[in-house]
Amino acid sequence: QILSSATNVSLIGMSIRGGRKTQTFNEGGGLYWEGLNSHINFHDVTFEGNTAYYGGGLYLVYSSNGDVIDMDQVIVHANRATAAAGGLGINFGGYPQFSLRNSQVYSNTAYEGGGIYFQGTPEPFGTLSAQIQNTQIYSNTASLSAGFENHSGDTAVPVVLSNSHVYHNQAGYYGGAIGNYGALDIVSTTLAANSAGLRGGGLYDYEGGQVNIEKSTFSDNIAQFGGGR
Questions:
Q1: pTM of the model
Q2: Contact (Cβ atoms closer than 8 angstroms) between residue 165 and residue 133
């Protein structure tokens, strides 16, 4: 656990494995963090084989005061959540900044958001900068939104997924690769060979969700209804 009193933390070249927080509503099997004007840096860190109710690998909770998380060359692998966020779970607060780059999120399992799960809305008049770049999200499983489930962002400042590859994710019902409730920009990204049992083999945009797609490829995704989207 990284305490809110630790406002400038870097984890570099390490692995976090075998953590378990399995009580109801427990969060962050491998790592749990609550921000408070904090700047957190993860570089060359592996989260593997951890288990929790929310956020099997790690669960990050932003404060309303403006926190910054920078994740580069991070591996989130084979983690499990009973509820949501099998690999990486984030609850955004006011004025958050988040970046996940050059990373791999794979073979994680949850009921929803098998690989990555974003929730939380910035405070009124706040800003959101949430970027996933040059990242592979693959072979995750969930009943809903196997690769990535997004509840964050708005029309003015959406969550951005760019230059990434989302593939071989399997959802039991909706959203093989991605399930979106918030505002999401997909840019120069490939969604390939994902599957859902019912709808949205590649992408399922839930009621109220907003998705903008630019220069991206949907290929060989499978569902009973809406294989690609």
A1: 0.96
A2: no
Place of tokens 């288990």: 51
The DSSP string of 88-153 is: EEEE--SS-EEEEES-EEES-EEEE-SSEEEE--PPTT---EEEEES-EEES-EEEE-SSEEE---
For 228, the enclosing helix (H) or strand (E) is none
Neighbouring CB atoms inside 10 A of 8's CB total 10
pLDDT per residue over 212-228, tens digit each? Answer: 999 999 999 999 987 65
CA distances from 99 to 18, 41, 133, 159, 222 (A): 25, 10, 8, 10, 30
Alpha-helical (H) ranges within the chain are none
Sign of CA dihedral 25, 181, 34, 32: positive
Closest to 77 in 3D by CA, of 1, 131, 129, 140: 140
